[in-house]
Each structure stands twice: as C-alpha cells, then as structure tokens.
From TrEMBL:
Its EC number is 3.6.5.4. It is found in: Cell membrane; Cytoplasm. The gene is ftsY. It comes from Streptomyces doudnae. Part of the signal recognition particle protein translocation system, which is composed of SRP and FtsY. This is Signal recognition particle receptor FtsY.
C-alpha cells in the first residue's frame, strides 16, 4: 500500500513539474506582432518596377472625367465635338484690267526708267553724254545690252527727224519704242484649253523663293475668277510646308489639292493630280513643282521626269517659269538652265512691285524667246495680273 501511495505522489510531482516547464517556456516567448492595420501613407507609393505584378484588371467599366459628377454638383455636361466648319469660299476679283488697277505698284520702275528717260529726252541739246545717260538708264533697269542699243539707235534717229519736241510728242515716241521692245503681237494667254480634251495641264517651275507656290495659288484664283474649275497638284514634296501652303490657297477658292507623302516622288503626285483632275472633270490641273536649285543636276533631271510622267496622260499645255524680278541677271541665268530641261512656254515675273528694274521684262523675253504671261505685283491674293504690254508701258512712262 505504501508503495502505491508513493508511486502516486511521484507521478503527481513529475506531472506538475512538466506542466510548470511548459507554461514557463510559453511565457518566455515574445509576443507575436499585432495584425497589420492600414498604415497612414504620408509618402507617395513607390513606382512599380519591372517584374512587379500588375493590378488585377477590374471588370467594372471605367467612367470618363466628364461622367464623374462632383458630389452635389451639377449634372455632367456632355461635350460635343465641334463640327468641322467648311472654310468660306472666296470669289476672286476679275482678271480683266488687273494690271491697270495695280499700275501704281510699278512706281519704282516708273521713276527710274520711264521718268528717267523722259527727263533726259526733254533736254534741249541731246549730246553724246545725254545719249550715254539714256543708255545707262536702260541698262540699270535691266533692259539688257542688245535691246538697249536697239532702243537708243531708234530714238536717236526719230528725235533727229522730229526736230523740236513737245513733252507729248516725246512721250508718244518713247511709248511706241518701248512697246516695240516689249512686243505686242505675241499670244500671252496661259494655255489651259487644249482642243478636244480636258483638263488643261499647267506646270509651274522655278527656283526656291521666287514666289512659285504663291504664284500657283494665285493662278488658281485667276482661273477661278475666269469661271474655270481647278485641281492643284502639290508636287513640291521637298519642302513640307509647300503642300500645306498650296492646299490653303486651293481651299480659299474651292479647288481640290492632290498631295503625296512628304519627300515622296514628285512625279507620282503630278501623275495622280492629273488623274484626279480627269476623274473630277475639271478644266485645269495646276502642278506646283519643287524649287530646284539650278546647280543640282539630279533635281533638274527630276523636273524633266515629272513632265514625262504627266505626259503619260496628255501633253503638258503650259510650262510657266517663275522668276523673281528683283534678282536681275541671276534670274536670267536661272531661266537659261530651266529652259534646257523643260520647254518653257511662258514666264511669270514676280515681285515687280519691289524693284526699279522693270526692264527685266524685255531682257527675259529676249533671253528665252518666250513671252511674259503674268506679273506679280504684290503679296495680296489677287496681285497676280495677266501681262498687258500697253498697260505696262503706260505705267512705266506715267500717262
Ligand atoms: N512683293 C511681292 N511678294 C511676292 C510676290 N510673289 C510672291 N511673293 C512673296 O515671295 C515669298 C516667297 O513665295 P513662295 O511662294 O513661298 O516661294 P516659292 O518659290 O514657292 O518657294 P519654295 O516653295 O520654297 O520653292 C512669299 O512671301 C510671297 O508672298 C509678288 O509679286 N510681290
């Protein structure tokens, strides 16, 4: 019995000791960290990095900023796309009599050339020195050597015959002689009405900055003013802004512009322009070409290519060379080079309003054997005028 009691006591003591150990060891363990609660964020969340999980996509359809109303605020406003407004189509001024209307723009040439000559010829004694001054006046106005000599010779002869001279007689004499130099019996109409087919095809060529793109745009207005329909071809693909510039000119008079990719093939734009012009049934297709530097043979060759490609449709009716009247002799050099590459059929002299060298009209015609057909007398949209020899000479000598 005593043995049993002893065994029970030992068992109780051993169990107690074990329990105490377990409890004791548990108490010594550090407390587990508290469950995470939402922290107060004071700094922006870090940027995601490569390999970070993307947020789970939400199926909820997103609302646009217009749909999210402010609490208690007004109902969301529906913003409507502004309807693209068609630009107003302008009605250009008629072309008849434009040069007469714009003749005051030739005042610089009038003072230097017309008035200069009249003053010299009115001198009582026309000695050698005076005739030399006449010659200098003509040369300074860029009339050119050969035409100057012809004019001086003729004037000397006629003044001698005339004897005493009244200002009216002198004026009439000079008018006649200048008209002879400029030429009155040439067809100066821009050829846009080929027989038996439409559209007429006009190419506009010239060196950068002569006013070529502007002239093409103004010419579209000239044609529209005369009741024709026009498609423009922006084959100046080298200068990015040229196509925009041309398109703006076209839109103003309701003319469609055919364009190509920037730096694309000018010949293909020109080809497409004529194709679209045919499909649309317009009267005239005007092609603006890149302002080629006359020293760059490759570019010049390309101009020839534009013409050849266009002629797969039909012959080009008119090739207009745009020359800046203020560049004088340099303009003549350009004219010569262009004439070698394409057959120039007409000349447009721009910026005659800004020069005293109106005599370039005579010189350039002589140089190319091609008539001046249009003259630029300002930057205004309707400042391009059909060239009329009488109105031009009258403006020079001041009626
Ligand atoms: N005063 C005056 N300015 C003109 C006349 N014709 C054109 N201009 C101006 O000349 C500048 C050059 O004209 P553009 O048409 O851009 O010249 P562009 O020859 O086409 O030049 P590229 O496209 O670079 O070949 C423009 O500021 C025109 O307004 C004119 O008859 N008189």
């Amino acid at each position: 019995m005593e043995t049993v009691i002893l065994a029970v006591v030992i068992a109780v003591v051993v169990l107690g000791a074990i329990g105490g150990l377990v409890v004791g060891s548990r108490r010594k363990r550090p407390l587990p960290p508290p469950p995470p609660t939402a922290p107060d964020i004071t700094a922006p969340p870090a940027e995601p990095h490569v390999g970070d999980e993307a947020e789970a996509p939400s199926d909820e359809s997103r609302r646009t900023i217009e749909e999210v109303g402010l609490p208690g605020g007004p109902a969301p406003v529906v913003v409507e796309e502004p309807s693209a407004e068609a630009p107003a189509i302008e009605v250009p001024e008629p072309t008849a009599g434009r040069l007469v209307r714009l003749r005051s723009r030739l005042s610089r040439s009038q003072n230097a050339l017309g008035q200069g000559l009249l003053t010299l010829l009115s001198r009582e004694h026309l000695d050698e020195d005076t005739w030399e001054e006449v010659e200098d006046t003509l040369l300074t106005a860029d009339v050119g050597v050969q035409p100057t000599q012809e004019l001086v010779e003729s004037l000397r002869e006629r003044v001698k015959v005339l004897g005493t001279r009244t200002p009216q007689e002198l004026r009439a004499l000079l008018r006649e002689e200048l008209l002879k130099l400029v030429g009155t019996d040439v067809d100066r109409a821009v050829r846009t009405e080929p027989e038996g087919r439409t559209p007429g095809i006009v190419m506009v060529v010239g060196v950068n900055g002569t006013g070529k793109t502007t002239t093409t745009g103004k010419l579209a207005r000239v044609l529209v003013a005369d009741g024709r329909t026009v498609v423009l071809g922006a084959a100046d693909t080298f200068r990015a802004a040229a196509a925009d510039q041309l398109q703006t000119w076209g839109e103003r008079v309701g003319a469609h512009t055919v364009r190509g990719p920037e730096a694309g093939d000018p010949a293909s734009v020109a080809f497409d322009a004529v194709k679209e012009g045919k499909e649309m049934g317009v009267d005239v297709v005007l092609i603006d070409t890149a302002g080629r530097l006359h020293t760059k043979t490759g570019l010049m060759d390309e101009l020839g290519k534009v013409k050849r490609v266009v002629e797969k449709h039909a012959p080009v009716d008119e090739v207009l060379l745009v020359l800046d009247a203020t560049t004088g002799q340099n303009g003549l050099v350009q004219a010569r080079v262009f004439a070698e590459v394409v057959d120039i059929s007409g000349i447009v002299l721009t910026k005659l309003d800004g020069t005293a060298k109106g005599g370039i009209v005579v010189a350039v015609q002589r140089e190319l054997g091609v008539p001046v057909k249009l003259v630029g007398l300002g930057e205004g949209a309707d400042d391009l005028a059909p060239f009329e020899p009488e109105a031009f000479v009258d403006a020079l000598i001041g009626e």
